[in-house]
Design goal:
This protein is an alpha+beta fold. Helices cover about 25% and strands about 35% of the residues.
């Protein structure tokens, strides 16, 4: 009976060692999608930025469409309203949006079309009179990203894709969806926020960065932040992990993979011996 318990324990240990490992990671904010009475839809994010020795700045970013989801077409011109509001900040700390950069890309299940840039915009203001667009708990920042549906970047890529054909094809919405497997648009929005304390000299203007990454799925609406949704490590089987470990400079030191293999071999030998004693 004692040998049987030991054998079961060893087999259980082997099962644990050989089970594919799933990496667990914390996830950031994904945003809160919403729909207005008029049928317009958007998504909000909340960011908490710590300013050392002063405290936290709570920033809310908001992205909404001027058309509803059922009418949204990638090849149509459309507007995305971009808003930033300060919900709270330390006293005597002033904030300015110095630069806002926005990109929009295609989302596709085909590698050749996934990530193709469709449009881009920048909104920047910095002069001797101001560090940027002033924002606080009473005054927010707002801008409109006017996306060109058939932009030069998109049509140029389409022409390049068909460069080996003698005919010229005009890009169509149905072609994007059915042939090129495009299922939505992804947005990357980056803000440079300058902050100053009232007692600081004029030349002291540090900044922090707020970034949002969003997918507008043609069937499901807004989804974000896409980095936290897509970067979850995949499960690795033992053989795959073994070849990854082989890439380490094992000739110069004894790596962990060699220890694990040695332990597994020893456990297998001991398990076989115990099993033979039990059945014998």
């Amino acid at each position: 009976m004692k040998y049987r318990i030991i054998a079961i324990a060893i087999l259980f240990s082997l099962l644990v060692l050989l089970t594919p490992a799933t990496a667990i990671r914390s996830r950031g904010i994904r945003g809160e999608p919403y729909t207005t009475i008029e049928g317009f839809f958007g998504i909000k994010f909340r960011h908490q930025v710590n300013i050392p020795q002063f405290g936290d700045v709570i920033v809310e970013t908001d992205y909404s469409s001027t058309i509803n989801l059922s009418s949204w077409k990638i090849t149509d011109n459309k507007d995305i309203v971009i808003e930033m509001n300060i919900l709270s900040k330390p006293n005597n700390l002033s904030l300015w949006v110095e630069h806002m950069h926005a990109d929009v890309f295609l989302e596709s299940t085909l590698e050749t079309w996934d990530g193709v840039m469709q449009d881009v915009m920048d909104d920047k203001y910095h002069s001797d009179m101001s560090y940027g667009f002033y924002i606080d708990t009473n005054y927010g920042y707002s801008e409109t990203f006017s996306i060109e549906g058939l932009s030069q970047m998109l049509t140029s890529y389409h022409s390049y894709y068909y460069a080996h054909h003698s005919e010229t094809y005009r890009l169509k919405e149905s072609e994007l969806i059915s042939k090129f497997k495009v299922y939505g648009s992804s947005f990357r929005i980056i803000y440079d926020i300058v902050f100053r304390h009232n007692s600081w000299p004029e030349e002291q203007t540090p900044k922090f960065i707020v970034e949002d990454n969003i997918i507008l799925n043609l069937k499901e609406g807004w989804q974000g932040n896409i980095g936290d949704l897509e970067d979850k490590p995949a499960e690795l089987d033992p053989i795959t992990k073994f070849f990854i470990w082989l890439d380490s400079p094992w000739l110069f030191y004894l790596p962990i993979w060699l220890w694990l293999i040695a332990i597994i071999i020893v456990l297998i030998i001991v398990g076989v011996i115990l099993y033979m004693k039990i059945v014998g």
